[in-house]
Amino acid sequence: MSRSEGRDSLYAHPRDSIDSFVFDERVAAVFSDMISRSVPGYASIIGMIGLLAERHASPGSRLYDLGCSLGAATVSMGKAIGGRDCRLVAVDNAEAMLARARQQFDKHGLDKVESLCADIRDVEIRDASVVVLNFTLQFLPLEQRLPLLRGIRQGMRRDGVLILSEKIAGADAEEDALLVELHHAFKRANGYSDLEISQKRTALEEVLVPETIAVHRQRLQEAGFGRVDLWFQCFNFVSFIARP
Fold first, then answer.
1. For the packed helices 25-38 and 95-107, what is the interaxial angle rounded to 10 degrees?
2. What are phi and psi for residue 14, nearest 5 degrees?
3. Cα–Cα dist 224/149, whole Å
4. Would you state the pLDDT for residue 112?
5. C-beta atoms surrounding 155 within 10 Å
6. pLDDT tens digits, residue range 177-235?
7. 42-169+208-243 is classed in which CATH architecture?
8. SS3 of 91, please?
9. Can you tell me whether residue 62 is helix, strand or coil?
10. Which terminus of the chain is more exposed, N or C, with fewer CB under 10 A?
11. Sequence spans of domains, the chain
12. Average pLDDT of the chain?
């Protein structure tokens, strides 16, 4: 972590009431630590996004990182494609997150990044060869997820790919309970207390709504993606590659 980034202790002390989770300056300041200690395989997913971008980015196209947070996926793609004639577009609706993302783009010499502080539902996808939704769709209301994916599909090149990473729900109650138990064990192993886990879960309860793998597959197909492959899973965190 850099000096401007801290260790996540936002939920380390008891609170009388738990507000809904928001991506504000307090979260932005510890987000790098938060996500690495909360999402199993996150670093691997970021690395593989770069590999997939290198494989699928076509000359003259755009590469979108929708809900870019601190810009990790954008940086991974930018480093992977090198001097290729592509345009990187990083979008987030939280200025506190995007400000830190811009610092990362400058740090890594990515001068082809167009960074937008905007709602991803308002961004027109155009001429895209790679679109990334890295743990972003899960924060949208359920009824707004299909329209977003349809818009992405319509703005993609025929040989493009969508990389969709999500926290999921188990296929049934027993599987869901197991996945949650394993995820909490992962967080404890990374230094989070039971209090932190419980309070963070309450904060996210109505903000992050996970769905099953089957629901994701069906929706992607309804959005116009002809092939959907699950390429990563660790506990209740997955990533798909969807192709037109």
1. 70
2. -60, 140
3. 9
4. 82
5. 17
6. 999 999 999 999 999 999 999 999 999 998 999 999 999 999 999 999 999 999 999 99
7. 3-Layer(aba) Sandwich (3.40)
8. strand
9. strand
10. N
11. 42-169+208-243
12. 96
